[in-house]
Amino acid sequence: MSLTVLGAGTPYPRPDNACSGYLLRTEENAVWVDAGPGSLANLQRHVSPDQLTAIWISHLHADHFADLASAYYALAFSELRPQRRIPVYGPVGWGGRLEAFLTNSQVAAMSAVFDEHELHDGHQIDLGDLSLTSRAVHHGGIPAFGLRAEHNGRVLAYSGDTGPCAALDELATGADVLLCEADSDDPTEVHCTPEDAGGAARRGGAKRLLITHVGPAMTPEAAAERAAKVFGGRTAAVSDNDLYELR
Ligand SMILES: [Zn+2]
């Protein structure tokens, strides 16, 4: 299984620093995890959007979701029209939110390119050689999910956006990689600090910690340094188009 970073930035995309997006690949799958603005452009460096086997959205904040509208345009109105509908998994109401962005005639075409699914806590997706488990996390009271991806005994855990919570610790348990947000400089229930990310990795016994979604009050490098002090293990801040192999 490999993880390609399509965007690690927030709250808005900058040149070479798109918002939240990741690509998970196995022999049989290419799954786009979070569709932050700018991540669709980076995705195309690695896979054609019509070749995606699934799209998974953690929550409906624009910095994780807005490029789904761009993906709809790519799939519905270009040469990329997919052979089969692409399954999209997201929080309750994601389809309606996207529809609200589109005109009436476009809404009618949405079901031709996207196969709509809604997530719940403990939701399981079986994609052949890849299984995805979604866990409800704490992010300011809106429906939000973290992800645990398993392939051939390897585990990638992704926080989505969350404050420190039991579900985040459970996602991190025994993970080969914990990809964790560290948006906040100071403790809050809405986002993790670098220390919160390091603590989740330590308690879960994760083998490696990757820091992402670092807020404007810190540099990613400083956030990774702070997280590493608490985690005590291998830690790095990710950048767009970084590739990590989980073997
Ligand atoms: Zn958010």
From TrEMBL:
InterPro entries: Metallo-B-lactamas, RibonucZ/Hydroxyglut_hydro. Pfam families: Lactamase_B_2 (PF12706). Residues 18-218 form the Metallo-beta-lactamase domain. It comes from the Bacteria. This is MBL fold metallo-hydrolase. It comes from Allokutzneria multivorans.
